[in-house]
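Example (one chain per record):
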Amino acid sequence: MSRVTARRRTLRLSPSGEIQRPDTLAVEEPLEIRLGGQSLTVTMRTPGSDIDLVHGFLLSENIIGSAEDVVSARYCAGTDAEGRNTYNVLDVALRVPAPARARNFLTTSSCGLCGKTALDEVRARTRYPIPADSLAVDPSALAAMPETLRARQSVFDATGGLHAAGLFTADGTALAVREDIGRHNAVDKVLGWALRENRVPAADLVLIVSGRASFELVQKAVMAGVPMLGAVSAPSSLAVDLADESGLTLVGFLRGDTMNVYSGAHRLEPRSSARPAS
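Predicted structure:
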């Protein structure tokens, strides 16, 4: 399999002078996803958990709804200059061939999609509407999840250059953590894990991401039926709109014991408070 890190020479400049030394970097390579031998899309990713990534991507795009929809997912032959398999082409055979419209992917914020169109599209496409009464999480448990996520970012420790996503139970137990050069790929990887473990719809799980909460990440959570998304950084305005429209709890700036709740505050159990003195 491909490596997730690579070594490159670098010139380090500092007040004490210059030094040449090797540096450890996160690997970025293309992954071509094919359906029945036909190219579907190419994503730039960090190698690893590719099968989960593809399952999560196909779920997010409403091409599949369960692991049973996939007959097989196999790497195609492809070699580099030294004759080694690159593991950069993955062909998926579906139980029922995807319709042509499945190839018209939902455009993300980076492509300037109209906000109202985006909201209507996701709401119409999801197979797993989020129940209003699904999940209740103590804020203190939620606040601890980013630290747990960070502690399991082994490749980030070596490179400083990867995003992470994790799926947690309401009490803060981490079920799956994945890293990737792309935040959307990291989310696809954990959602693909959930799909393959028959945990979709994920109505009892919390999705935590290491960076910001974009529209695309909220879309992926909604498509998997995840009722709560927590982000270490800020959400976008369209992400908040989609979360509110879809009944998803969206929490941003999840750092330490503080957080901003942008939608779905009813899923956060109130903090216990001391009784007033009599």
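Caption: Confidence is low (pLDDT under 50) at residues 106-114, 273-278.
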